[in-house]
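REQUEST ID: PR-0412
SUBMITTED BY: lab tech R.K.
PRIORITY: routine
TASK: structure prediction, single protein chain
INPUT:
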Amino acid sequence: MGGTAGAPGTPRVLRAMNDRAALDLLLEHGPLSRTRIGRLTGLSKPTASQLLARLEAAGLVLATGTTEGRPGPNAQLYEVNPGAAHAAGIDVTPRRIRAAVADITGRTVGHHELPAPARRSGIPVVQQVTDALDGAVKAAGLSRADVHRLVIGTPGAFDPNTGRLRYASHLPGWHSPTLLDELAAALPMPFEYENDVNLVAVAEQRLGAARDHTDFVLLWNQEGLGAALVLGGRLHRGWTGGAGEVGFLPVPGTPLVRQVTKANSGGYQELAGSQAVPRLARELGVEDIPQGPYTEVAATLVERAAAAPDDDGPHRRLLGAYATRLATGLASLVSVLDPELVVLSGTGLTSGGEVLRALVQAELEELAAARPRLVVGGVREHPVLRGALESALATTRDEVFDTSRRPPLPHRPTAP
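STATUS: complete
OUTPUT:
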């Protein structure tokens, strides 16, 4: 046969496309029979049998049980081989580094968390990253060499023009111009870096409230206030990686913050960030304000206010004032971007649930001409880390599931 073996339309490429379609169906639906795979892909039984034989020989699928107990004769079931590849994610904050490893199906198989070292500890960032990764790898019963790809999420963003971390002066040790080269030298697998809020948007788009949406804004409020912008199905990062750094946004209701990068804050952060909630609660006469880290205090106050009766004056005033402050910054975002959907995420927002969401929606409709739908984020457990894993898994699957890169198996006639 003439032409290149991998040219579009050749049998090898068409087989690879069918293989990937079948693997995606197995990921989505779980174990399936040959007949069910044939129906879902539109392939004949002989072709589906050949496909499954290829994937089983390549170590990508496993035979797992039968359809016993269902109507009709028993049929062999197949599933994606969880051990075909593994990917890892790391979530970095000023307080801790959290790492996890997932198998190719997306199941987390190892997890490890380390407190961030003291500012003057002298522990290099590269060691912090490798220690966290090694802990997760060990918990999974694997080695570093078993990890196909790693994604690291941090506040701020690495400027693609300089390779230096920007918009996160509160993350000590991460601003060296040689850091990315040092990480590349220390890690045996390819790695990527991504803004933490962008990774939350990845998690929501793949698993949560933004599934099947290609244009949405995610507003995050936890340690800091930020946003992720998904336009046409793709993350919009900006020229220096700073798209969505809305904490620096000047807004009415608070004095102008100058030298924002030195202050590591801005108007919207001062108005509606989690650290503003306890202060606002005191001003409005809320009593019994808990002690602790401001992120936890804010989440507790917002949760209590959302659960309070309608006639509870201080708590309801707190929730209403907080919703107005959130909508003030959101109005600028939606006026520029006109998104279909806004996802509210981070404990400073999700703790208010549907009650806070409805208040912010009503306020936003008064402040902006655009009318996006607001929803509460659905990925609540370690959303940054989950997004890092989903991002690493997407690339890993593209590479591992591409059977056109594998040598073709010998042809085996299929019994009629």
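NOTES: The chain has a mean pLDDT of 91.
REVIEWED BY: pending
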